[in-house]
Amino acid sequence: MTSETLGRSQGQRTGSFLLHAGMVLAALAFLFPFFWMVTNAIRPNAEVLAVPPQLLPSDWQWSNFVYAWLYLPFGRFFLNSIIVAGGITILTLAVSSMAAYAFARLRFPFSGSLFVVYLATLMVPQAVIVIPLFLMMSWLGWMNSFQGLILPMAFSTFGTFMLRQYFLQIPKELEEAAMIEGCSRLTIFLRIILPLSRPMLGLLALFTFTGQWNSFLWPLIIVNGPEYSTIPLGLTLFQSQQGVQWNYMMAGSTISMLPGILLTLALQRYIFSGIAMGSGFGGR
Amino acid sequence: MQSKPSAAPSRAGTGRAKAMLRDDRRAAFWFLLPSFLGLAVFLLLPLAASLALSFTNWQLIGQSKFVGWRNYVNLLTIDPSFWQILRNTFHFTIEYLVLNIVISLTMAVWISNLRWGKRFFRLIFFLPTFTPLIGSAIVWLLIFTPGGFADWFFSALHLPIPNLLTSPDLAIQAIVIVSLWSGFGYNLLLFGAALEAIPSTYLDAAAIDGASSWQRFWRIKLPLISPTLFFGTVMTAITSLQVFDQVYALTRGGPGSATATLGFSIYRTGFAAYKMGYASAIAWVLFVIIMALTILQLRVQRRWVHYDL
Predict the structure, then answer these.
(1) What CATH number labels A78-276?
(2) Model ipTM?
(3) In chain B, which residues have their Cβ closer than 8 Å to the Cβ of A23?
(4) B70-304: in CATH 3.40.50.150
(5) Choosing a second label site near B127 at 20 to 30 A (CA), which of A66, B1, B108, B182?
Protein backbone atom coordinates (compact mmCIF):
# COMPACT_ATOMS: atom_id res chain seq x y z
CA MET A 1 0.00 0.00 0.00
CA THR A 2 2.60 2.49 1.08
CA SER A 3 5.06 1.32 -1.53
CA GLU A 4 2.36 1.69 -4.15
CA THR A 5 1.60 5.32 -3.20
CA LEU A 6 5.31 5.96 -2.92
CA GLY A 7 5.81 4.49 -6.37
CA ARG A 8 3.05 6.60 -7.82
CA SER A 9 4.37 9.79 -6.31
CA GLN A 10 7.81 8.96 -7.62
CA GLY A 11 6.21 8.35 -11.01
CA GLN A 12 4.50 11.68 -10.73
CA ARG A 13 7.81 13.30 -9.92
CA THR A 14 9.48 11.85 -13.00
CA GLY A 15 6.44 12.82 -15.02
CA SER A 16 6.66 16.37 -13.75
CA PHE A 17 10.39 16.45 -14.50
CA LEU A 18 9.76 15.28 -18.05
CA LEU A 19 7.02 17.88 -18.52
CA HIS A 20 9.42 20.62 -17.47
CA ALA A 21 12.38 19.30 -19.44
CA GLY A 22 10.26 18.96 -22.57
CA MET A 23 8.99 22.49 -22.18
CA VAL A 24 12.53 23.84 -21.76
CA LEU A 25 13.52 22.10 -25.02
CA ALA A 26 10.45 23.47 -26.81
CA ALA A 27 11.25 26.97 -25.56
CA LEU A 28 14.89 26.70 -26.69
CA ALA A 29 13.82 25.53 -30.16
CA PHE A 30 11.32 28.37 -30.28
CA LEU A 31 13.99 30.92 -29.38
CA PHE A 32 16.36 29.70 -32.12
CA PRO A 33 15.25 32.28 -34.73
CA PHE A 34 16.03 35.07 -32.25
CA PHE A 35 19.43 33.52 -31.61
CA TRP A 36 20.05 33.12 -35.33
CA MET A 37 19.01 36.70 -35.97
CA VAL A 38 21.39 38.21 -33.40
CA THR A 39 24.38 35.96 -34.16
CA ASN A 40 24.04 36.66 -37.88
CA ALA A 41 23.68 40.36 -37.26
CA ILE A 42 27.15 40.48 -35.73
CA ARG A 43 29.09 38.20 -38.10
CA PRO A 44 30.86 39.05 -41.36
CA ASN A 45 28.47 38.77 -44.30
CA ALA A 46 30.67 36.13 -46.01
CA GLU A 47 30.10 33.81 -43.05
CA VAL A 48 26.30 34.05 -42.99
CA LEU A 49 25.68 31.21 -45.46
CA ALA A 50 28.70 29.10 -44.50
CA VAL A 51 28.29 25.32 -44.88
CA PRO A 52 28.03 23.81 -42.35
CA PRO A 53 26.48 26.74 -40.48
CA GLN A 54 28.59 28.15 -37.68
CA LEU A 55 26.50 28.64 -34.57
CA LEU A 56 28.64 31.46 -33.25
CA PRO A 57 30.42 34.16 -35.28
CA SER A 58 34.17 33.82 -35.71
CA ASP A 59 34.43 37.54 -35.17
CA TRP A 60 31.82 39.37 -33.07
CA GLN A 61 31.26 42.52 -35.09
CA TRP A 62 28.91 44.55 -32.95
CA SER A 63 29.79 47.48 -35.19
CA ASN A 64 27.45 45.89 -37.80
CA PHE A 65 24.61 47.54 -35.93
CA VAL A 66 26.20 50.92 -36.59
CA TYR A 67 26.80 50.08 -40.26
CA ALA A 68 23.23 48.81 -40.69
CA TRP A 69 21.97 51.99 -39.08
CA LEU A 70 24.00 54.04 -41.60
CA TYR A 71 23.59 51.76 -44.66
CA LEU A 72 19.97 52.86 -44.87
CA PRO A 73 18.66 55.90 -42.96
CA PHE A 74 17.51 53.71 -40.09
CA GLY A 75 17.43 56.58 -37.63
CA ARG A 76 14.96 58.25 -39.93
CA PHE A 77 12.83 55.07 -40.15
CA PHE A 78 12.84 54.80 -36.38
CA LEU A 79 11.77 58.42 -35.96
CA ASN A 80 9.07 58.02 -38.63
CA SER A 81 7.73 54.92 -36.89
CA ILE A 82 7.56 56.75 -33.57
CA ILE A 83 5.79 59.74 -35.13
CA VAL A 84 3.30 57.59 -37.06
CA ALA A 85 2.54 55.01 -34.35
CA GLY A 86 2.54 57.72 -31.67
CA GLY A 87 0.30 60.04 -33.68
CA ILE A 88 -2.22 57.31 -34.43
CA THR A 89 -2.22 56.24 -30.78
CA ILE A 90 -2.88 59.74 -29.44
CA LEU A 91 -5.63 60.40 -31.98
CA THR A 92 -7.23 57.01 -31.38
CA LEU A 93 -7.31 57.55 -27.63
CA ALA A 94 -8.84 61.02 -27.94
CA VAL A 95 -11.41 60.20 -30.61
CA SER A 96 -12.52 56.82 -29.32
CA SER A 97 -12.77 57.85 -25.68
CA MET A 98 -15.06 60.74 -26.64
CA ALA A 99 -17.29 58.54 -28.75
CA ALA A 100 -17.28 55.85 -26.07
CA TYR A 101 -18.48 58.36 -23.48
CA ALA A 102 -21.39 59.38 -25.70
CA PHE A 103 -22.40 55.74 -26.20
CA ALA A 104 -21.98 54.86 -22.53
CA ARG A 105 -23.68 57.79 -20.86
CA LEU A 106 -25.53 60.21 -23.11
CA ARG A 107 -29.11 59.71 -24.28
CA PHE A 108 -29.65 60.69 -27.90
CA PRO A 109 -31.81 59.51 -30.78
CA PHE A 110 -30.62 56.47 -32.76
CA SER A 111 -27.80 55.80 -30.34
CA GLY A 112 -28.44 52.06 -30.59
CA SER A 113 -28.35 51.86 -34.37
CA LEU A 114 -25.35 54.16 -34.58
CA PHE A 115 -23.49 51.91 -32.18
CA VAL A 116 -24.27 48.91 -34.38
CA VAL A 117 -22.78 50.80 -37.34
CA TYR A 118 -19.64 51.47 -35.30
CA LEU A 119 -19.40 47.81 -34.37
CA ALA A 120 -19.98 46.66 -37.93
CA THR A 121 -17.01 48.69 -39.19
CA LEU A 122 -14.75 46.40 -37.18
CA MET A 123 -15.52 43.71 -39.71
CA VAL A 124 -14.06 45.65 -42.66
CA PRO A 125 -10.61 44.32 -43.59
CA GLN A 126 -7.99 46.92 -44.39
CA ALA A 127 -7.32 45.27 -47.75
CA VAL A 128 -10.87 46.13 -48.87
CA ILE A 129 -10.51 49.88 -48.44
CA VAL A 130 -6.86 50.49 -49.37
CA ILE A 131 -7.52 51.09 -53.05
CA PRO A 132 -10.02 53.96 -52.61
CA LEU A 133 -7.92 55.29 -49.71
CA PHE A 134 -4.88 55.32 -52.00
CA LEU A 135 -6.84 57.23 -54.68
CA MET A 136 -8.08 59.65 -52.02
CA MET A 137 -4.55 60.24 -50.73
CA SER A 138 -3.14 60.89 -54.18
CA TRP A 139 -6.03 63.23 -54.92
CA LEU A 140 -5.36 65.13 -51.68
CA GLY A 141 -1.62 65.17 -52.39
CA TRP A 142 -1.01 63.23 -49.17
CA MET A 143 1.22 60.53 -50.66
CA ASN A 144 4.53 60.51 -48.80
CA SER A 145 3.30 62.51 -45.85
CA PHE A 146 2.70 62.05 -42.16
CA GLN A 147 -0.94 63.06 -42.41
CA GLY A 148 -1.39 60.39 -45.07
CA LEU A 149 0.25 57.78 -42.87
CA ILE A 150 -1.60 58.79 -39.70
CA LEU A 151 -5.11 60.08 -40.37
CA PRO A 152 -6.68 57.18 -42.32
CA MET A 153 -5.56 54.72 -39.62
CA ALA A 154 -6.66 56.76 -36.60
CA PHE A 155 -10.40 56.06 -36.54
CA SER A 156 -10.68 52.39 -35.71
CA THR A 157 -13.81 51.87 -33.63
CA PHE A 158 -12.21 49.08 -31.65
CA GLY A 159 -11.19 51.50 -28.90
CA THR A 160 -14.68 52.99 -28.79
CA PHE A 161 -16.11 49.56 -28.16
CA MET A 162 -13.58 48.63 -25.45
CA LEU A 163 -13.78 51.96 -23.65
CA ARG A 164 -17.57 52.01 -23.71
CA GLN A 165 -17.62 48.68 -21.88
CA TYR A 166 -15.22 50.12 -19.34
CA PHE A 167 -17.09 53.41 -18.85
CA LEU A 168 -20.31 51.50 -18.22
CA GLN A 169 -18.74 49.96 -15.13
CA ILE A 170 -17.97 53.33 -13.56
CA PRO A 171 -20.64 54.13 -10.92
CA LYS A 172 -23.09 56.76 -12.17
CA GLU A 173 -23.30 58.33 -8.70
CA LEU A 174 -19.88 59.93 -9.21
CA GLU A 175 -21.16 61.83 -12.22
CA GLU A 176 -24.49 62.72 -10.64
CA ALA A 177 -22.71 64.30 -7.69
CA ALA A 178 -20.56 66.35 -10.05
CA MET A 179 -23.61 67.40 -12.07
CA ILE A 180 -25.41 68.69 -9.00
CA GLU A 181 -22.37 70.85 -8.40
CA GLY A 182 -22.91 72.23 -11.90
CA CYS A 183 -20.11 70.49 -13.79
CA SER A 184 -20.58 70.19 -17.56
CA ARG A 185 -20.39 66.89 -19.43
CA LEU A 186 -16.98 67.90 -20.73
CA THR A 187 -15.64 68.56 -17.24
CA ILE A 188 -17.05 65.26 -16.01
CA PHE A 189 -15.46 63.44 -18.95
CA LEU A 190 -12.07 65.07 -18.46
CA ARG A 191 -11.95 65.15 -14.67
CA ILE A 192 -13.79 62.00 -13.63
CA ILE A 193 -14.18 59.46 -16.43
CA LEU A 194 -10.75 59.68 -18.05
CA PRO A 195 -8.72 59.57 -14.82
CA LEU A 196 -10.75 56.58 -13.62
CA SER A 197 -10.14 54.76 -16.91
CA ARG A 198 -6.37 54.97 -16.92
CA PRO A 199 -5.79 51.19 -16.92
CA MET A 200 -7.99 50.67 -19.96
CA LEU A 201 -6.65 53.74 -21.78
CA GLY A 202 -3.14 52.44 -21.16
CA LEU A 203 -4.02 49.03 -22.55
CA LEU A 204 -5.59 50.59 -25.63
CA ALA A 205 -2.54 52.82 -26.10
CA LEU A 206 -0.18 49.87 -25.81
CA PHE A 207 -2.04 47.68 -28.29
CA THR A 208 -2.61 50.53 -30.74
CA PHE A 209 1.02 51.61 -30.62
CA THR A 210 2.50 48.15 -31.12
CA GLY A 211 -0.06 47.30 -33.79
CA GLN A 212 0.83 50.44 -35.72
CA TRP A 213 4.56 50.02 -35.14
CA ASN A 214 4.24 46.68 -36.93
CA SER A 215 1.84 47.85 -39.62
CA PHE A 216 3.12 47.30 -43.14
CA LEU A 217 0.48 47.35 -45.88
CA TRP A 218 -0.56 51.00 -45.63
CA PRO A 219 2.98 52.47 -45.47
CA LEU A 220 3.93 50.20 -48.40
CA ILE A 221 1.14 51.69 -50.46
CA ILE A 222 1.49 55.39 -49.80
CA VAL A 223 5.22 55.78 -49.17
CA ASN A 224 7.88 55.86 -51.84
CA GLY A 225 11.53 55.97 -50.91
CA PRO A 226 13.21 56.30 -47.54
CA GLU A 227 12.06 59.74 -46.40
CA TYR A 228 8.74 58.63 -44.93
CA SER A 229 9.49 54.92 -44.56
CA THR A 230 8.58 53.31 -41.27
CA ILE A 231 10.70 50.49 -39.87
CA PRO A 232 8.88 47.49 -41.43
CA LEU A 233 8.93 49.19 -44.81
CA GLY A 234 12.58 50.17 -44.33
CA LEU A 235 13.44 46.51 -43.69
CA THR A 236 12.13 45.54 -47.11
CA LEU A 237 14.34 48.22 -48.68
CA PHE A 238 17.31 46.05 -47.62
CA GLN A 239 15.89 43.37 -49.90
CA SER A 240 15.85 45.61 -52.93
CA GLN A 241 19.36 46.97 -52.43
CA GLN A 242 21.98 45.43 -54.65
CA GLY A 243 23.70 42.37 -53.16
CA VAL A 244 21.91 41.13 -50.08
CA GLN A 245 23.67 42.28 -46.92
CA TRP A 246 22.27 39.55 -44.67
CA ASN A 247 24.10 40.74 -41.59
CA TYR A 248 22.74 44.26 -41.91
CA MET A 249 19.27 42.87 -42.57
CA MET A 250 19.46 40.85 -39.35
CA ALA A 251 20.71 43.90 -37.48
CA GLY A 252 17.75 45.81 -38.89
CA SER A 253 15.33 43.07 -37.84
CA THR A 254 16.81 43.11 -34.36
CA ILE A 255 16.31 46.86 -34.12
CA SER A 256 12.73 46.53 -35.40
CA MET A 257 11.88 43.86 -32.82
CA LEU A 258 13.60 45.39 -29.83
CA PRO A 259 10.88 47.90 -28.77
CA GLY A 260 8.14 45.26 -28.89
CA ILE A 261 10.21 42.75 -26.94
CA LEU A 262 11.19 45.29 -24.31
CA LEU A 263 7.58 46.43 -23.94
CA THR A 264 6.45 42.81 -23.59
CA LEU A 265 9.05 42.12 -20.91
CA ALA A 266 8.35 45.31 -19.00
CA LEU A 267 4.56 45.18 -19.12
CA GLN A 268 3.89 41.42 -19.19
CA ARG A 269 1.42 41.39 -16.31
CA TYR A 270 -0.55 44.23 -17.82
CA ILE A 271 -0.56 42.76 -21.35
CA PHE A 272 -1.57 39.32 -20.13
CA SER A 273 -4.47 40.76 -18.15
CA GLY A 274 -5.60 42.62 -21.27
CA ILE A 275 -5.61 39.46 -23.37
CA ALA A 276 -7.22 37.43 -20.59
CA MET A 277 -10.28 39.67 -20.91
CA GLY A 278 -10.81 37.86 -24.19
CA SER A 279 -11.44 41.14 -25.90
CA GLY A 280 -9.57 40.46 -29.10
CA PHE A 281 -6.80 42.88 -28.20
CA GLY A 282 -4.17 42.39 -30.85
CA GLY A 283 -5.73 39.16 -32.07
CA ARG A 284 -3.76 37.17 -34.60
CA MET B 1 -45.64 69.14 6.07
CA GLN B 2 -43.44 66.33 4.95
CA SER B 3 -44.97 66.02 1.47
CA LYS B 4 -44.36 69.66 0.45
CA PRO B 5 -40.58 69.64 0.37
CA SER B 6 -40.63 66.36 -1.56
CA ALA B 7 -43.12 67.66 -4.15
CA ALA B 8 -41.17 70.80 -5.01
CA PRO B 9 -37.92 69.08 -6.00
CA SER B 10 -39.78 66.51 -8.09
CA ARG B 11 -41.44 69.24 -10.21
CA ALA B 12 -38.11 71.01 -10.55
CA GLY B 13 -36.69 67.54 -11.22
CA THR B 14 -38.77 66.95 -14.37
CA GLY B 15 -37.78 70.37 -15.68
CA ARG B 16 -34.19 69.60 -14.97
CA ALA B 17 -34.53 66.16 -16.56
CA LYS B 18 -35.81 67.72 -19.78
CA ALA B 19 -33.00 70.24 -19.77
CA MET B 20 -30.55 67.43 -19.16
CA LEU B 21 -31.92 65.44 -22.06
CA ARG B 22 -31.47 68.46 -24.33
CA ASP B 23 -27.96 68.99 -22.96
CA ASP B 24 -27.28 65.28 -23.51
CA ARG B 25 -28.17 65.53 -27.16
CA ARG B 26 -26.00 68.55 -27.70
CA ALA B 27 -23.11 66.96 -25.81
CA ALA B 28 -23.53 63.69 -27.73
CA PHE B 29 -23.25 65.57 -31.01
CA TRP B 30 -19.90 67.11 -30.09
CA PHE B 31 -18.54 63.97 -28.44
CA LEU B 32 -19.36 61.88 -31.51
CA LEU B 33 -18.43 64.38 -34.19
CA PRO B 34 -14.66 63.64 -34.50
CA SER B 35 -15.06 59.87 -34.61
CA PHE B 36 -18.03 60.00 -36.94
CA LEU B 37 -16.32 62.34 -39.39
CA GLY B 38 -13.18 60.20 -39.39
CA LEU B 39 -15.18 57.04 -39.85
CA ALA B 40 -17.24 58.51 -42.66
CA VAL B 41 -14.25 59.89 -44.57
CA PHE B 42 -11.70 57.13 -44.01
CA LEU B 43 -13.89 54.06 -43.77
CA LEU B 44 -17.49 54.33 -44.96
CA LEU B 45 -16.70 56.40 -48.03
CA PRO B 46 -13.78 54.16 -49.15
CA LEU B 47 -15.92 51.10 -48.51
CA ALA B 48 -18.68 52.40 -50.76
CA ALA B 49 -16.09 53.58 -53.29
CA SER B 50 -14.46 50.16 -53.36
CA LEU B 51 -17.80 48.52 -54.12
CA ALA B 52 -18.42 51.06 -56.88
CA LEU B 53 -14.89 50.61 -58.28
CA SER B 54 -15.40 46.86 -58.45
CA PHE B 55 -17.99 47.46 -61.17
CA THR B 56 -15.58 49.53 -63.30
CA ASN B 57 -12.39 48.85 -65.20
CA TRP B 58 -10.68 51.70 -63.32
CA GLN B 59 -6.96 52.03 -64.03
CA LEU B 60 -4.54 54.72 -63.01
CA ILE B 61 -4.16 55.86 -66.58
CA GLY B 62 -6.55 55.70 -69.49
CA GLN B 63 -10.32 55.75 -69.69
CA SER B 64 -12.39 54.06 -67.07
CA LYS B 65 -15.93 52.94 -67.51
CA PHE B 66 -18.69 51.03 -65.83
CA VAL B 67 -18.50 47.35 -66.72
CA GLY B 68 -21.30 45.88 -64.61
CA TRP B 69 -20.62 42.40 -63.27
CA ARG B 70 -17.81 41.75 -65.74
CA ASN B 71 -15.00 41.84 -63.16
CA TYR B 72 -16.77 39.29 -61.03
CA VAL B 73 -17.66 37.13 -64.02
CA ASN B 74 -14.04 37.27 -65.21
CA LEU B 75 -12.79 36.33 -61.76
CA LEU B 76 -15.02 33.32 -61.47
CA THR B 77 -14.95 32.04 -65.03
CA ILE B 78 -12.06 33.33 -67.15
CA ASP B 79 -9.17 34.31 -64.88
CA PRO B 80 -7.16 31.12 -64.39
CA SER B 81 -5.12 32.59 -61.52
CA PHE B 82 -8.10 33.51 -59.36
CA TRP B 83 -9.06 29.95 -58.44
CA GLN B 84 -5.47 29.25 -57.58
CA ILE B 85 -5.40 32.35 -55.38
CA LEU B 86 -8.59 31.30 -53.66
CA ARG B 87 -7.24 27.78 -53.22
CA ASN B 88 -3.95 29.16 -51.80
CA THR B 89 -5.84 31.37 -49.37
CA PHE B 90 -8.01 28.54 -48.08
CA HIS B 91 -5.09 26.13 -48.01
CA PHE B 92 -3.10 28.58 -45.92
CA THR B 93 -6.01 29.54 -43.66
CA ILE B 94 -7.15 25.99 -42.92
CA GLU B 95 -3.68 24.56 -42.37
CA TYR B 96 -2.54 27.53 -40.29
CA LEU B 97 -5.77 27.61 -38.30
CA VAL B 98 -5.72 23.91 -37.42
CA LEU B 99 -2.02 23.95 -36.50
CA ASN B 100 -2.32 27.21 -34.57
CA ILE B 101 -5.25 26.00 -32.48
CA VAL B 102 -3.82 22.51 -31.88
CA ILE B 103 -0.38 23.83 -30.94
CA SER B 104 -1.57 26.73 -28.80
CA LEU B 105 -4.13 24.58 -26.98
CA THR B 106 -1.67 21.73 -26.39
CA MET B 107 0.98 24.13 -25.14
CA ALA B 108 -1.56 25.99 -22.98
CA VAL B 109 -2.65 22.73 -21.30
CA TRP B 110 0.94 21.59 -21.00
CA ILE B 111 2.05 24.85 -19.39
CA SER B 112 -0.94 24.95 -17.04
CA ASN B 113 0.19 21.54 -15.72
CA LEU B 114 3.68 22.77 -14.89
CA ARG B 115 4.62 23.33 -11.28
CA TRP B 116 6.94 26.24 -11.98
CA GLY B 117 7.67 28.67 -14.78
CA LYS B 118 4.12 29.02 -16.13
CA ARG B 119 4.36 32.75 -16.63
CA PHE B 120 7.93 32.47 -17.88
CA PHE B 121 7.11 29.97 -20.65
CA ARG B 122 4.00 31.85 -21.73
CA LEU B 123 6.15 34.96 -21.97
CA ILE B 124 8.76 33.20 -24.15
CA PHE B 125 6.19 32.06 -26.69
CA PHE B 126 4.52 35.47 -26.65
CA LEU B 127 7.74 37.36 -27.46
CA PRO B 128 7.23 37.65 -31.26
CA THR B 129 3.64 38.87 -30.90
CA PHE B 130 4.46 42.55 -30.46
CA THR B 131 7.21 42.59 -33.09
CA PRO B 132 6.75 43.39 -36.79
CA LEU B 133 5.78 40.38 -38.88
CA ILE B 134 8.12 41.76 -41.51
CA GLY B 135 10.99 41.48 -39.01
CA SER B 136 10.19 37.84 -38.18
CA ALA B 137 9.63 37.00 -41.83
CA ILE B 138 13.05 38.38 -42.77
CA VAL B 139 14.74 36.27 -40.09
CA TRP B 140 12.96 33.18 -41.44
CA LEU B 141 13.90 34.25 -44.95
CA LEU B 142 17.54 33.85 -43.94
CA ILE B 143 16.78 30.44 -42.43
CA PHE B 144 14.91 29.24 -45.54
CA THR B 145 17.03 30.90 -48.21
CA PRO B 146 18.74 28.44 -50.63
CA GLY B 147 21.93 27.26 -48.94
CA GLY B 148 20.65 28.54 -45.60
CA PHE B 149 20.17 26.87 -42.24
CA ALA B 150 17.00 24.94 -43.14
CA ASP B 151 18.60 23.30 -46.18
CA TRP B 152 21.59 22.24 -44.08
CA PHE B 153 19.32 21.02 -41.27
CA PHE B 154 17.16 18.84 -43.54
CA SER B 155 20.16 17.35 -45.32
CA ALA B 156 21.93 16.70 -42.01
CA LEU B 157 18.88 14.69 -40.95
CA HIS B 158 18.81 13.02 -44.40
CA LEU B 159 15.31 14.30 -45.00
CA PRO B 160 14.48 14.55 -48.70
CA ILE B 161 12.97 18.02 -48.38
CA PRO B 162 13.75 20.47 -51.19
CA ASN B 163 14.29 24.15 -50.55
CA LEU B 164 10.94 25.46 -49.32
CA LEU B 165 11.02 28.89 -50.93
CA THR B 166 11.82 27.67 -54.44
CA SER B 167 9.46 24.70 -54.42
CA PRO B 168 5.99 25.52 -55.80
CA ASP B 169 4.46 22.72 -53.72
CA LEU B 170 6.11 23.60 -50.43
CA ALA B 171 6.53 27.38 -50.50
CA ILE B 172 3.24 27.87 -48.68
CA GLN B 173 4.63 25.76 -45.82
CA ALA B 174 7.25 28.44 -45.26
CA ILE B 175 4.47 31.02 -44.91
CA VAL B 176 2.64 28.73 -42.47
CA ILE B 177 5.76 28.19 -40.36
CA VAL B 178 6.53 31.90 -40.07
CA SER B 179 2.91 32.71 -39.24
CA LEU B 180 2.80 29.99 -36.59
CA TRP B 181 6.04 31.08 -35.00
CA SER B 182 4.97 34.67 -34.67
CA GLY B 183 1.27 34.06 -34.04
CA PHE B 184 0.49 31.11 -31.81
CA GLY B 185 1.75 32.78 -28.61
CA TYR B 186 -1.28 35.02 -28.59
CA ASN B 187 -3.78 32.16 -28.58
CA LEU B 188 -1.60 30.30 -26.10
CA LEU B 189 -2.06 33.19 -23.71
CA LEU B 190 -5.77 33.49 -24.42
CA PHE B 191 -6.42 29.77 -23.83
CA GLY B 192 -4.04 29.70 -20.88
CA ALA B 193 -6.04 32.43 -19.15
CA ALA B 194 -9.28 30.54 -19.80
CA LEU B 195 -7.79 27.35 -18.33
CA GLU B 196 -6.64 29.24 -15.23
CA ALA B 197 -10.17 30.54 -14.76
CA ILE B 198 -11.64 27.03 -14.34
CA PRO B 199 -12.49 26.59 -10.66
CA SER B 200 -10.13 23.98 -9.22
CA THR B 201 -13.04 22.45 -7.29
CA TYR B 202 -14.42 21.03 -10.56
CA LEU B 203 -11.16 19.30 -11.37
CA ASP B 204 -10.63 18.13 -7.79
CA ALA B 205 -14.12 16.65 -7.66
CA ALA B 206 -13.50 14.82 -10.95
CA ALA B 207 -10.14 13.56 -9.71
CA ILE B 208 -11.75 12.19 -6.53
CA ASP B 209 -14.34 10.42 -8.68
CA GLY B 210 -11.45 8.75 -10.44
CA ALA B 211 -11.37 10.69 -13.71
CA SER B 212 -8.03 10.39 -15.50
CA SER B 213 -6.26 13.53 -16.61
CA TRP B 214 -7.24 12.62 -20.20
CA GLN B 215 -10.92 12.50 -19.16
CA ARG B 216 -10.58 15.71 -17.15
CA PHE B 217 -9.29 17.44 -20.26
CA TRP B 218 -11.97 16.22 -22.69
CA ARG B 219 -14.93 16.21 -20.29
CA ILE B 220 -14.27 19.29 -18.14
CA LYS B 221 -11.56 21.63 -19.36
CA LEU B 222 -12.37 21.59 -23.06
CA PRO B 223 -16.15 22.20 -22.70
CA LEU B 224 -15.52 24.96 -20.16
CA ILE B 225 -13.08 26.86 -22.34
CA SER B 226 -15.02 26.22 -25.55
CA PRO B 227 -16.39 29.79 -25.80
CA THR B 228 -12.84 31.18 -25.64
CA LEU B 229 -11.63 28.49 -28.00
CA PHE B 230 -14.31 29.40 -30.49
CA PHE B 231 -13.61 33.12 -30.18
CA GLY B 232 -9.87 32.56 -30.72
CA THR B 233 -10.50 30.29 -33.70
CA VAL B 234 -12.73 32.77 -35.51
CA MET B 235 -10.42 35.73 -34.82
CA THR B 236 -7.45 33.75 -36.10
CA ALA B 237 -9.39 32.65 -39.18
CA ILE B 238 -10.32 36.24 -39.99
CA THR B 239 -6.75 37.53 -39.69
CA SER B 240 -5.24 34.62 -41.57
CA LEU B 241 -7.63 35.06 -44.50
CA GLN B 242 -6.01 38.49 -44.92
CA VAL B 243 -2.41 37.22 -44.79
CA PHE B 244 -0.10 39.65 -46.56
CA ASP B 245 3.10 40.71 -44.76
CA GLN B 246 4.66 37.23 -44.60
CA VAL B 247 3.88 36.56 -48.25
CA TYR B 248 5.37 39.87 -49.32
CA ALA B 249 8.58 39.42 -47.35
CA LEU B 250 9.17 35.72 -48.03
CA THR B 251 8.00 34.90 -51.55
CA ARG B 252 6.21 37.88 -53.15
CA GLY B 253 3.53 35.36 -54.08
CA GLY B 254 5.97 33.05 -55.84
CA PRO B 255 7.31 30.81 -57.12
CA GLY B 256 4.87 31.53 -59.93
CA SER B 257 1.64 32.19 -58.08
CA ALA B 258 2.15 29.32 -55.62
CA THR B 259 1.80 31.53 -52.55
CA ALA B 260 -0.34 34.35 -53.91
CA THR B 261 -3.24 34.81 -51.49
CA LEU B 262 -6.28 37.08 -51.73
CA GLY B 263 -4.57 39.79 -49.68
CA PHE B 264 -1.43 39.63 -51.79
CA SER B 265 -3.37 39.51 -55.02
CA ILE B 266 -5.33 42.66 -54.14
CA TYR B 267 -2.00 44.41 -53.69
CA ARG B 268 -0.44 42.98 -56.84
CA THR B 269 -3.44 43.64 -59.06
CA GLY B 270 -4.07 47.10 -57.65
CA PHE B 271 -0.58 48.47 -57.10
CA ALA B 272 1.68 46.56 -59.46
CA ALA B 273 -0.67 46.10 -62.43
CA TYR B 274 -2.74 49.19 -61.51
CA LYS B 275 -6.00 47.41 -62.36
CA MET B 276 -7.87 49.04 -59.52
CA GLY B 277 -11.37 48.05 -60.56
CA TYR B 278 -10.41 44.42 -60.86
CA ALA B 279 -8.49 44.52 -57.57
CA SER B 280 -11.57 45.99 -55.87
CA ALA B 281 -13.62 43.04 -57.07
CA ILE B 282 -11.06 40.66 -55.50
CA ALA B 283 -11.22 42.75 -52.32
CA TRP B 284 -14.98 42.34 -52.17
CA VAL B 285 -14.70 38.58 -52.53
CA LEU B 286 -12.43 38.66 -49.48
CA PHE B 287 -14.85 40.92 -47.65
CA VAL B 288 -17.83 38.68 -48.33
CA ILE B 289 -15.94 35.65 -47.00
CA ILE B 290 -15.00 37.54 -43.84
CA MET B 291 -18.54 38.86 -43.41
CA ALA B 292 -19.90 35.32 -43.62
CA LEU B 293 -17.44 34.18 -40.94
CA THR B 294 -18.32 37.08 -38.66
CA ILE B 295 -22.03 36.46 -38.98
CA LEU B 296 -21.46 32.80 -38.22
CA GLN B 297 -19.52 33.83 -35.13
CA LEU B 298 -22.31 36.12 -33.92
CA ARG B 299 -24.91 33.39 -34.49
CA VAL B 300 -22.98 30.75 -32.60
CA GLN B 301 -21.90 33.13 -29.85
CA ARG B 302 -25.48 34.11 -29.14
CA ARG B 303 -26.10 30.51 -28.24
CA TRP B 304 -23.21 30.72 -25.83
CA VAL B 305 -24.24 33.84 -23.96
CA HIS B 306 -26.07 31.87 -21.31
CA TYR B 307 -23.32 29.33 -21.10
CA ASP B 308 -22.11 29.80 -17.56
CA LEU B 309 -18.59 29.15 -16.49
Answers:
(1) 1.10.3720.10
(2) 0.89
(3) 110-111, 114, 117, 121
(4) no
(5) A66
